[in-house]
Design a protein that fits this description.
The chain contains 7 helices and 15 strands. The chain is α/β, with parallel strands linked by helices and about 300 residues long. The strands form 4 sheets. The protein has a 6-stranded mixed beta sheet, sandwiched between helices. Helix 5 links the parallel strand 8 and strand 9.
């Protein structure tokens, strides 16, 4: 048993510390990401003595020196949570100067989900298998793409065309990372299987003409490439000054026509993904990360018509 502060672990070493529980490691990962300095179980507080011997002690999970705050995660069984509440109460009675916060399971899960870490319970995000790209990774990459576009289009005023509905999140984040004057417009596309032989149709056209403009098509994902191919043909016929493609995701495994992707966020494997604008039957668009679906949900996707 250790009493008193331990040497602080070097920063960003969440994967080197022997955590007692995976949720602690995930929490340390979030703290690292936000540059919050932490110490893992640095101090044990004696709480009760019996006949001169230590009878009860408490070692909070984390200490955040910059906030002078101890954090105890309560992500385990209810019985343990009750015991933790009791220990925190005893600690506060005995050490009133010590600041400690119990992080409850629901707060903890929504914090994890917000920043793209698992796990998820059935109730939290039913149908989600695992996070493929976290919110933090998305944010970083979208920022990089914005910077790249800002460099490449210096002294020009690009027109961003967002493809509804999947590109909604990407488009609104991307445009805020482009440090140039720009304009935006939106198109909606749908593909019909069966009777119309997989034809791609424009269901909502642009409001403004694009002749002579530097157009950047902003897509959610390029899969077979059929949608993008048709879209580019249509746009080319309207004589823009230039035409480029920025797609958040590239799924090259099922590509049919060769389509140019000038700016690509991430290459993804041949799996059905949802989140950050992408849907499964109109659901999951509001997840702040990209995730794969559970296999029983996937079966439905593979046997029925693909969502738009
Ligand atoms: P493509 O014509 O390239 O095969 O398909 C492009 C469209 O199919 C995308 O804009 C998207 O709406 C849909 N799509 C393709 N793969 C996925 C996927 O993994 N997840 C979701 N949600 N939509 C997809």
């Amino acid at each position: 048993m250790t009493i008193g502060p331990q040497p602080r672990p070097p920063k960003e070493t969440a994967n080197l510390v022997p955590f007692a529980h995976p949720s602690e490691e995930e929490f340390a990962g979030i703290l690292d990401f936000y540059g919050v300095t932490w110490e893992y179980e640095p101090r044990t507080f004696p709480l009760q003595e019996k006949e001169g011997r230590l009878a009860l002690a408490f070692t909070p999970d984390f200490y955040l020196p910059d906030l002078d705050l101890y954090i105890e995660l309560t992500t385990l069984k209810q019985k343990l949570v009750t015991e933790k509440h009791r220990k925190v109460r005893l600690l506060q009675e005995r050490y009133p100067e010590v600041r400690i916060k119990l992080l409850h399971r629901s707060d903890y899960l929504s914090l994890l989900a917000k920043y793209g870490f698992g796990p998820f319970s059935e109730v939290e995000v039913a149908g989600i298998h695992e996070v493929l790209i976290s919110a933090a990774e998305l944010e970083r990459r979208v920022k990089e793409l914005g910077a790249e576009i800002s460099r490449d289009y210096r002294d020009r005023e690009p027109l961003l065309i967002g493809v509804l509905r999947g590109a909604a999140c990407f488009m609104s984040d991307l445009m805020r990372h482009i440090s140039l004057p720009l304009t935006t417009d939106y198109m909606a596309i749908s593909s019909y299987d069966g009777e119309q032989g997989g034809a791609v149709q424009i269901t909502k056209d642009l409001v403004e003409p694009i002749t002579g403009r530097d157009v950047i098509v902003v897509e959610d994902i390029v899969d077979t490439g059929m949608t993008l191919n048709t879209l580019l043909e249509t746009l080319r016929s309207r004589n823009p000054a230039s035409l480029a493609v920025c797609s958040l995701l590239d799924k090259p495994a099922r590509r049919l026509p060769k389509v140019p992707i000038d700016y690509c966020g991430f290459v993804v494997p041949d799996e059905f993904v949802v989140g950050y604008g992408l849907d499964f039957r109109q659901k999951f668009r509001n997840l702040p990360f990209i995730a794969t679906l559970k296999s029983d949900w996937l079966k439905v996707w593979k046997t029925e018509k693909r969502p738009e």
